[in-house]
Structures are given as structure tokens and as C-alpha cells.
From TrEMBL:
Pfam families: ABC1. SUPFAM superfamilies: Protein kinase-like (PK-like) (SSF56112). This is ABC1 atypical kinase-like domain-containing protein. Transmembrane segments: none annotated.
Amino acid sequence: MKRFDANFEADRHVLVPRVYASTEAVLVMGLAEGTSLSKWVKTENDVKKRDDVHALLVDMMAKMGMQDRFMHGDLHPGNLFIKIEEDGAPT
């Protein structure tokens, strides 16, 4: 998680919760603000917001695979949280 956090440190749209403790079997992290992607896609009907989140996710995946050459090992809609900022930008 430290490497993932460092890779996105300069990106204000990708926030990584703080890691408090970890072992090989357990990872304890801070609370992530927002709504899980799995819930968000079921409730958000605004096409612009959906397009913005889609673009953010595509950019994030491309950066991980092509630039960082380091992929998050447990990305799924329950582990991704969406928060729309006051300026309308997703984080």
C-alpha cells in the first residue's frame, strides 16, 4: 500500500487511506470517505458524473499498468470509494 500511495501522491483525485498496521494476513487501514463504487453505480444517474468517474478509473488503471508497472492486487467495486468534491471532480 505504501508503494501504491507513493505512486498516486501527486494525484489529488486518488486518495489512499492511512495504513495503521499490517501482517501477511491482516491489513488495518483508516476509513475511506465516500460511497463504494458498487453502491455508487447503482444510485448515481448523472451522466457527466458517471463519465468523470469512468475517466478517472481508466486513467488510474493506465497509470498503474503503463507508467508505474505496479498493479493494486485487490481492486474491486467494494474497495473503491467515490466522493464528488465541491468543484464537481470525483475522488
